[in-house]
Write a structure and sequence with these properties.
Blueprint lengths: L6 E5 L6 H4 L6 E7 L6 H12 L9 H10 L7 E7 L9 H19 L11 E8 L4 H15 L3
Helix pairs in contact: 3-4, 4-5
């Protein structure tokens, strides 16, 4: 997905260069999510709510999750790193939910890739890393690419 330099799919135990994940300076917030704990949409929302400490007004739906991910004012940082482990295990019986999750993450990343840092010195950053079983890497990359084309590209 050369169109989305901040989104990465890696095999479990895979690695990315540190400079891809972490900026040179600034405050960085890292959140680790686990696809194995995302059996249904409610479990997805609960994991984001717990791990990101979403505000109490969170609406427990995809639009509300996107709104919160685009805001993140309660987590003041210049850079956000989202690690989704076992991403291929998320929403195993819900293809539409999987697409909604991927589209939500892509839309949030697109928002942050163009946002300015709170001090006005340069762009904020958003990095999405999705790990999965080695046999699932190409499939997850393809699903991510299709979701990108469906939601972001003209």
């Amino acid at each position: 997905m050369h169109h989305v330099p901040w989104a990465h799919v890696v095999p479990e135990q895979g690695a990315l260069p540190v400079d891809v994940l972490l900026p040179m300076t600034g405050r960085t917030y890292v959140v680790r999510l686990d696809g194995r704990e995302m059996g249904d949409a409610d479990a997805v929302f609960l994991q984001f709510y717990d791990r990101l400490r979403l505000p109490d007004y969170f609406g427990w739906n995809w639009n509300a999750l996107l709104d919160c991910l685009r805001d993140l004012h309660w987590l003041p940082a210049d850079h956000y790193v989202f690690l989704v482990e076992a991403a291929d295990a998320a929403l195993p019986d819900d293809a539409a939910g999987q697409r909604s999750l991927l589209r939500t993450l892509l839309r949030a990343g697109r928002h942050w890739s163009g946002a300015r840092r709170s001090d006005g010195r340069g762009p904020s950053s958003f990095v999405l890393v999705m790990s999965c079983a080695p046999a699932s890497v190409s499939d997850l990359r393809e699903r991510l690419r299709l979701c990108w084309e469906e939601t972001v590209l003209p």
